[in-house]
Amino acid sequence: MDASTAQDRSLEPKDLTGGDYGFIVFILLVLVAVTMLGVVGHREALKTEGSKRNGEQWAAWFTKASETRFAPDYAIAACAGGAKPAVAAAPATGDDAKPADAPATEATAAAVPAAGTWGGCVAHLMSATELKDMVNPFTGTAPNFIPACNPADHSLVGSIVIEKITPNPPGSAVPSITSQLVDADSIAEKLALKISVCDKGSYAVKVAELEF
Question: Are 192 and 211 in contact (CB under 8 A)?
Fold first, then answer.
């Protein structure tokens, strides 16, 4: 057998072995896994973008309301500026005390958000405006308002964080502090607000800082 004949035989196709088939199957599985991860990642990214749009919708409402809510004829009384929250009356004593059924009545009254507060405003917005139809893309339900996003709690995905920014006195090392905007907070004056949403990992994504 000469050298040319041996070389020709070395170039002839060989049958695939079991190891070859196993490698091909492994590569196909890797491709399928990578594709599925890409699809899932894309879906989660879309949900995060949907959550950001929810935050942007709130930011747009705050910005628009800020221009007119201090006008005397502002249409949404619950969110109007200038109206100081009512101060609760002192409990009655002696002959002026309420009858036995008073505790239930007082509890019901306490459950109604006071006028001139964020609680009264958000209650109206979530029941009588287009904001009531807002949906958390991750859960399919209305988004929750929470104090802060927390990566350790994945139930917070898609939630909304609305914080008030309070300036510190001039010369302070920290120019301002942020804290949760709670139901009892007065909205009689202008407020500086920060809006964030929780992404797929429950990390905070800043949406906007604005004046309300």
Answer: yes
Percent of the chain with pLDDT over 70: 74
The token duo for 96 is: 């002026």
Give buried/exposed letters for 63-87 (b at 16+ CB in 10 A, else e).
Answer: eebbeebeeeeeeeebbbbebebee
Of 193, 181, 209, 212, the residue nearest 74 (C-alpha): 212
pLDDT digits (tens, 9 = 90+) for 122-156: 999 999 999 999 999 999 999 999 999 999 999 99
Burial class (CB in 10 A: 0-12, 13-18, 19+), 196: buried
Mean per-residue pLDDT of the chain: 81
* Residues 54-102: tens digit of each pLDDT: 999 999 999 999 989 999 889 999 999 886 665 544 455 555 555 555 4
| Alpha helices in 112-169, H assignment, sequence order | 118-128
Nearest one of 114, 116, 112, 113 to 74, comparing CA atoms:
116
- CB-based contacts of 147-152 (< 8 A; 24+ apart in sequence): 147/180, 148/180, 148/204, 149/196, 149/197, 149/198, 149/199, 149/202, 149/203, 149/204, 150/202, 151/201, 151/202, 151/203, 152/202
